[in-house]
Design a protein that fits this description.
By secondary structure, the protein is of the alpha+beta class. 31% of the residues lie in helices and 32% in strands. It has a single domain, classed as Anthranilate synthase. The chain has a 20-stranded antiparallel beta sheet that branches. Helix 1 (14-21) crosses helix 3 (133-152) and helix 5 (211-221) packs across helix 10 (416-434). The protein is globular, with a radius of gyration of 21 Å. Bound molecules: the ligand C=C(O[C@H]1C=CC=C(C(=O)O)[C@@H]1O)C(=O)O.
């Protein structure tokens, strides 16, 4: 049984907490736009790295069930495991590159310190988890001592960014021809309806990555999205995703279809016009409908009764607007989050339709492993409450290199040039978050 100690604070600024996180590994930060509390998880008292993505979903779920037996009842609704599942699951081929390293098959941990911060008033509730009373107490005390030292001169407004040296859209022309090839395949394969193809941008930068600055910039550049950071052994995954995959709270499940994209306008009028164009565009409506229908079908397979509106609304982010359909259902207690994630992921917003065939096309066409890009990332408490988002508008950073990811839903009447522009827009949230605007070395590379 783990030993837990908790403490409520009402005087420490968020900046000092984030600054403290620089000293820990692993680190996980989760900030949802519609929630009053933000979670920071520091250090691992236990962790799990799946050996293969073939069984990762089951293995992580078993690890969670095992850990749950050692959590004192009193803390079941406070403590959580945090981390990400891999994009490729259940025997899908993956092509190992050097990008993901330890995060390749997903990664979860039970934090040594879990902090819930009330965003509006900076009040905090800290949970220290250990194996003995003494080490739990000591962990908490040393954290508080260091925090006080930092809080005395933490600078809250810091916005300095990394300096972009060179950016490359990897295999751009090749990707464009893959989109054309996939369109042909969609038109000639009877039951293949949609495939989401992704591409990468590689950025070399100077400057030191500091979580405090990363977090400040993430929030500033992406006001109404989630803000997620996962750091492990020198690799930092960061996402400003607008897409919820699964939230479980109050015996309900909340998910959403987010698919179909258009740019933002430069004036309020043009922005509204773009939104109306999107709401009436047959290709985007079809792309969106595939996602809605697939989520509904999968929830019904779990014997749930989902509720949703028959027409999508608009979800506006700083660089793009999407078609958006929230979906909810009452959730009986016996269905676990991992069971639902296994059923839903990847939705046709990131995979395609039908799921298995589309995933085979992705594996055959993309010559890299998606790792946490487009994968479920989140937290799960031991009372079953939790939230997982889809790791898009994301990047992986290590040393002086960042890999940015962006994908687009390809259907039978997709236009390759338009998909290149759409994915370029989807790189923008991370470019704006990470790098200063004096971007030099702009440079698209053919293959
Ligand atoms: C695959 C991505 O976006 C998905 C989510 C929203 C809209 C999408 C679209 O319109 O294609 C994509 O399905 C990405 O941002 O990398």
């Amino acid at each position: 049984m783990y030993v837990v100690q908790d403490l409520k604070l009402d005087s420490f600024p968020l900046a000092a907490f984030i600054q403290m996180s620089q000293r820990f590994d692993p680190v996980y930060i989760f900030d949802a736009p519609d929630q009053p509390t933000l979670k920071i998880a520091l250090g691992a008292i236990d962790s799990f790295e799946p050996q293969t993505n073939q069984t990762a979903f089951n293995d992580i779920s078993n690890w969670y069930a095992h850990i749950a037996q050692s959590i004192p009842d009193k803390y079941m609704q406070d403590l959580a495991v945090v981390g990400g599942l891999p994009f490729q699951k259940n025997g899908q081929a993956s092509i190992r590159t050097d990008v993901w390293r330890d995060l390749d098959h997903g990664y979860f941990f039970l934090p040594q310190l879990l902090i819930h911060i009330a965003k509006d008033d900076y009040k905090a509730h800290i949970f220290s988890v250990g194996t003995t009373f003494d080490n739990t107490q000591q962990q908490l005390q040393s954290f508080l001592t260091n925090l006080k030292l930092l809080a005395a001169h933490a600078d809250t407004g810091s916005i300095s960014k990394l300096h972009l040296q060179q950016k490359k859209e990897l295999a751009l022309q090749h990707w464009q021809s893959l989109v054309k090839q996939t369109v042909t395949q969609l038109n000639t394969t009877a039951n293949l309806q949609k495939v989401v193809l992704s591409r990468q941008m590689q950025v070399q930068f100077t400057g030191t990555l500091e979580l405090k600055q990363l977090f400040n910039n993430l929030r500033r550049a992406n006001l109404n999205t989630y803000h997620v950071i996962l750091k492990l052994r020198g690799s930092v995954f960061v996402s400003a995703t607008p897409e919820r995959l699964l939230k479980i709270a109050n015996h309900h499940l909340y998910t959403a279809a987010v698919a179909g994209t258009i740019r933002r306008g430069t004036t309020p009028d043009s922005d509204i016009r773009y939104g109306q164009t999107l709401l009436a565009d047959q290709k985007n409506l079809q792309e969106h409908q595939y996602v809605v229908q697939n989520i509904i079908d999968n929830l019904r397979r779990l014997k749930l009764q989902p509720h949703y509106a028959t027409r999508p609304q608009l979800l506006k982010n700083p660089n793009v607007q999407h078609l958006y359909t929230p979906i909810t259902s009452i959730l009986p207690k016996q269905i676990s989050a991992f069971e639902i994630l296994q059923q839903l992921h990847p939705t046709p917003a990131l995979g395609g339709l039908p799921q298995t065939l589309a995933s085979q096309v992705i594996a055959a066409v993309e010559n890299y492993d998606r790792g946490l890009y487009g994968a479920p990332i989140g937290y799960l408490q031991f009372d079953g409450v939790g939230e997982f988002v889809v790791g898009i508008r994301s990047a992986l950073l290590r040393q002086q290199t960042a890999w940015l990811f962006a994908g687009a839903g390809i259907v039978a009447d997709s236009d390759a040039a338009a998909e290149v522009l759409e994915t370029r827009l989807k790189f923008q949230p991370m470019l704006n978050t990470l790098f200063s605007t004096d971007q030099r070395g702009d440079h698209a590379n053919g293959n």
